[in-house]
Amino acid sequence: MRKVALAIAATLVLGLISPAFSQPFADVPTDHWAFDAIAELAAKGIVEGYPDGTFKGDRAMTRYEMAMVVARLLARVEAIKIPPAAPPTKIPPAEVGRADIQTLQRLVNEFRAELAALGVRVTAVEEELAALRARVDNTRVTGFTFFRYQANNLAPGAPYTFGLFNLTFTGQASSTASVTVNLLLDSGDGGIFAFETPIAGNATPCTSCLTTYPTPGASFDRAYLDARAFGFGWRLGRQTYRMGPVGLLFNEAAVAINGGNSQGIDGLKITGAFGPVNFEAAGFTHIANADITAQVSLLMARVALGLLPGWTFGVNLYSERHNQTSPTPNVAHNGWSVDVSGGLIPGVTLAAEYANFTPSGGAAQTAYQVNATLNLAQLTGMMTFAPSLRLQYKQYPTVWTPTFRGGSDMFAIANTADYNAWSARLQLTFSPQFRPYVNYESGRIISSGATQTELEVGFFSLITTAVTAQFRYQLRSGAASTNRYRLQIDTSW
Predict the structure, then answer these.
(1) β-sheet bridge partners, residue 188
(2) How many CB atoms within 10 Å of residue 174?
(3) What is the pLDDT averaged over residues 432-454?
(4) Which of 47, 135, 359, 465 is spaced 20 to 30 A from 389 at the CA atom?
(5) Distance CA 410, CA 414 (A)
(6) Which of 170-179, 200-209, 368-377 shows the lowest per-residue confidence on average (mean pLDDT)?
(7) pLDDT at 307
């Protein structure tokens, strides 16, 4: 019986598909439950039977007979001939899986002496198993999704559902290079599964989406190669990037199609360090309209230095260069910013950025933002509810025109120009099922003097592992009035 079980195990290890086979052994009837596995192994030369043409499946194997079978299995593994260093142009289909490789390794450990006596190069086989394991493990798939229902108690807007599905594929091309591709499905406001129906805003059809982007709602918003070469890190392709802790001059999250989710930006980023000095340099290309005639080159560089333990000081340079058919042709808009981040005292962290942007032939524009996080549990000893408080102040000038300016990253008020405000967020943790929070922001439109405020209350609840629900109520007054609630379910894997 052990012999029959081994035949089945070996077949599973090799992942073989069993077509119809002729009868290989006189004592194995075609209606036996293990016939296909035994016949397949015989056809592959893994088992040979006895000189009289029988299999003797009810006879116990000797260790040397077992070692002979393992040796033949390992010979097939070694015959795969995986290149140890050169990255493959594409990942070939694996002949064995991760669990199968572990089974083979256990067999090698168990029959090491017998395999050596049969002339098997055990060390070489283990190297092949390691290479096989690397090939099997070199692609990971992760992702997340969320579904949202929103109802507006007052105008503007109508109730809507929203869905987003994300898959990220990461392949290890070599020990120093990897490839990442991210697939994003976005339903817009047309319904959770209405990926083919783009909607802009709250239930307002997007009349240009279908002609501008033939497959709205589905995009590869990340597709890049990461590599280490010449002592630097290189990222080439469609990627995410923010210059500085706030990103006042450039934040990839502002790059969107038809007002939708972030779509990534195409270009090259280089990172490295010289002693205590870290640097980044990046160049991106933005297509400013659908017919690909107006393009903008975005060039930027950052140097960051640890002046004191726990503190980082950064200097950033930025330039936009418009091509001849741009709305502002043959010009360069330039900017710079400085930032500082670190811990003031235990339990209090700070991040601040000041930016200057000068359009070609125009006056200089300045903006700044300060974010502070207070761990009240650490500061006050209130460990029961783990309270934390985030504070923010932002000042954006009346005219603030970097193409993909960042900032205003805490609440739903999305003003990134002509606006100043302060805001606060308090969060508590009663249990994994109940983590309430409250947000408040008070701001002013600089040009008109009009005020606007927003109050948001809500809670997070852990439904099960990796699945979280969020409920929130938002009341906004002033220039953009809103009175609504949202229910959202998030999961990741």
Answers:
(1) none
(2) 14
(3) 90
(4) 465
(5) 9
(6) 200-209
(7) 78
Do 299 and 250 contact (CB within 8 A), yes or no?
no
Q: Which residues contact 302 (CB under 8 A, 6 or more apart)?
A: 243, 244, 279, 280, 281, 314, 315, 316, 317
Other Cβ atoms closer than 10 A to 388 = 19
Q: Which pair of tokens denotes residue 275?
A: 């002693």
Residue 475 corresponds to which tokens in the numbers above? 């009341």
Radius of gyration of the chain (CA): 31
Q: Please tell me the total number of residues recorded for the chain in this structure.
A: 493
Q: 257-295 pLDDT, tens per residue? A: 444 455 678 899 999 998 889 999 999 988 765 555 567
Q: Give the C-alpha separation, 24 to 28, whole Å.
A: 8
Q: How confident is the model at residue 334 (pLDDT cuts 50, 70, 90)?
A: very high
Q: How far apart are CA 72 and CA 294, in angstroms?
A: 63
CA distances from 240 to 224, 250, 417 (A): 10, 11, 22
pLDDT one-digit tens code per residue, 53-98: 777 766 666 766 766 766 776 666 555 544 444 444 344 444 455 6
Packing angle of the helix pair 98-110, 63-78 (nearest 10 deg)? 140
Provide the whole-model pTM. Answer: 0.66
Task: State the pLDDT at residue 457.
Answer: 95
Of 11, 20, 91, 101, residue with least CA distance to 47: 11
Q: Looking at this protein, which amino acid is placed at residue 460? A: F
Q: Please answer whether residues 413 and 394 qualify as being in contact, where contact means their C-beta atoms are separated by less than 8 angstroms.
A: no
Angle, to 10 degrees, between the axis of helix 35-43 and the axis of helix 2-14? 60
Two tokens, residue 327? 């709305």
- In this predicted structure, the answer to whether residue 28 has a pLDDT above a threshold of 80 is no
Q: What is the mean pLDDT of residues 7-16?
A: 46
Cα 218 to chain center, whole Å? 16
* Structure tokens belonging to residue 172: 């290890």
For the chain, first and last CA: distance in Å? Answer: 41
- Structure letter (DSSP) for residue 262: B
pLDDT computed for residue 35 by the predictor: 65
d(CA 401, CA 335): 11
Sign of CA dihedral 261, 257, 253, 150: negative
Rounded Cα distance between 221 and 211, Å, is 19
Calpha distance 108→132 (Å, rounded): 15
The rounded distance, in Å, linking the Cα atoms of 131 and 85 is: 10
Nearest-CA neighbor of 34 among 50, 15, 58?
A: 58
List residues bridging with 249 in a β-sheet.
Answer: none
Cβ-contact 267, 260 below 8 angstroms: no
Cβ(206)–Cβ(179) under 8 Å?
no
d(C-alpha 185, C-alpha 261), whole Å: 10
pLDDT averaged over every residue in the chain: 76
Token match 């500061």: residue?
379
Give dist(CA 418, CA 454) in Å, integer.
17
